[in-house]
C-alpha cells in the first residue's frame, strides 16, 4: 500500500492530519488520553481513518513507546484492521514495505494479531525470520554504498517513523554510523526551510547515541527552532514533538508501551 496512493484524496489527507494531531495530543498529555480506537470510532469516514493508521504506521505506537500511554485491545484491533484493509502490495516502494512490517511487528509485540507481509506481497525477502521491525524487507542500502549521502538522507527521512525507542535493527544501526550525513541533511533542510524534512531527520539525530554526536550540531537548538518557527503542519509538529521526547532521554520503550 503506497503512501502516495493517498495523495489525490483530500479526505484521506485530512484523516492523516487528524490522526497526527491525535498522536501529538497523546504525546503531550499528562493523563491517559483517548486511545486510537476512540479516535477512529469518532471519524466521519472510517476507511479514511484506517488509511491514516497505515500511513502513520509505527507512529501510532509513539505515545505508548515514548509516554507510556496505554495501548489496549481495541487499539490493537484498529491497527490489525488497517493492515487487513490496506495490505502491502507488490508495487509498494521499499520504504513502505519496511514501515508496514514495522507496524505489524509492533502490533505483534504488544499482543495484537495481524499477518506480517510476506515475500508474496512485497517481493523477495531473503533471510527474514519472523517479525523484525526494520530488518525485514528489500535491501535499501544501495545509497549507503555509492557515497550518495543525499539519496541516503532522503531515504532516512521517509523512514523517520522507525526512529522510535525499541525499533532496533539495520536501519537504526546505519543511522548511528552515519550521524554526520544525517546532520548534513538536517542542516541543509533547515537552510532550505524544508521544515517537514528537517523534523523527520531531527528524530534520527536525536535518537543517535551521545557517543556519535556530531560536533557543532546542536540538535536541541534545531528542535527549539522548529517548535518556534518551523513546525506548522500536523505531521511536522508531531515529528518535532517526537524529537523533543527523544532528546529528553526517552530512548527505551516506556513501561506500558509495546
What does this structure look like?
This protein is mainly α and 258 residues long. It has two domains: 1-133, no CATH class; 140-252, no CATH class. Helix content is 58%, strand content 0%. The protein is built from 14 helices and no strands. Helix 12 (195-207) runs parallel beside helix 14 (234-247).
Write the layout of secondary structure elements.
Blueprint: H1 10-28, H2 36-41, H3 46-56, H4 62-67, H5 73-85, H6 94-109, H7 119-122, H8 142-146, H9 149-158, H10 170-177, H11 179-191, H12 195-207, H13 219-230, H14 234-247
Helix pairs in contact: 1-3, 1-14, 3-5, 5-6, 9-12, 11-12, 12-13, 12-14, 13-14
Gist of the model:
The chain has helices at residues 10-28, 36-41, 46-56, 62-67, 73-85, 94-109, 119-122, 142-146, 149-158, 170-177, 179-191, 195-207, 219-230, 234-247. By secondary structure, the chain is mainly α. It folds into two domains: 1-133, no CATH class; 140-252, no CATH class.
Amino acid at each position: 500500500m503506497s503512501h502516495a496512493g493517498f495523495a489525490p484524496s483530500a479526505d484521506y489527507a485530512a484523516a492523516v492530519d487528524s490522526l497526527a494531531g491525535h498522536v501529538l495530543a497523546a504525546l503531550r498529555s499528562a493523563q491517559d488520553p483517548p486511545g486510537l480506537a476512540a479516535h477512529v470510532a469518532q471519524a466521519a469516514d472510517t476507511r479514511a481513518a484506517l488509511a491514516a493508521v497505515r500511513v502513520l504506521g509505527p507512529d501510532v505506537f509513539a505515545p505508548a513507546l515514548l509516554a507510556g500511554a496505554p495501548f489496549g485491545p481495541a487499539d490493537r484491533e484498529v491497527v490489525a484492521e488497517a493492515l487487513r484493509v490496506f495490505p502491502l502490495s507488490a508495487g509498494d516502494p521499499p520504504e513502505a514495505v519496511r514501515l508496514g512490517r514495522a507496524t505489524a511487528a509492533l502490533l505483534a509485540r504488544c499482543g495484537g494479531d495481524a499477518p506480517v507481509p510476506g515475500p508474496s506481497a512485497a517481493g523477495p525477502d531473503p533471510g527474514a525470520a519472523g517479525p523484525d521491525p526494520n530488518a525485514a524487507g528489500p535491501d535499501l542500502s544501495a545509497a549507503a554504498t555509492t557515497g550518495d549521502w543525499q539519496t541516503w538522507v532522503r531515504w532516512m527521512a521517509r523512514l523517520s517513523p522507525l526512529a522510535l525507542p525499541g525499533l532496533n535493527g539495520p536501519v537504526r544501526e546505519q543511522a548511528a554510523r552515519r550521524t554526520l550525513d544525517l546532520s548534513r541533511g538536517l542542516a541543509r533542510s533547515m537552510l532550505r526551510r524544508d521544515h517537514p524534512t528537517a523534523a523527520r531527520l531531527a528524530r534520527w539525530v536525536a535518537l543517535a547515541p551521545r557517543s556519535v554526536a556530531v560536533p557543532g550540531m546542536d540538535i536541541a537548538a534545531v528542535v527549539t527552532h522548529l517548535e518556534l518557527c518551523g513546525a506548522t503542519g500536523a505531521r511536522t509538529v508531531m515529528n518535532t514533538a517526537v524529537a523533543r521526547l527523544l532528546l529528553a532521554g526517552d530512548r527505551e520503550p516506556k513501561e506500558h508501551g509495546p
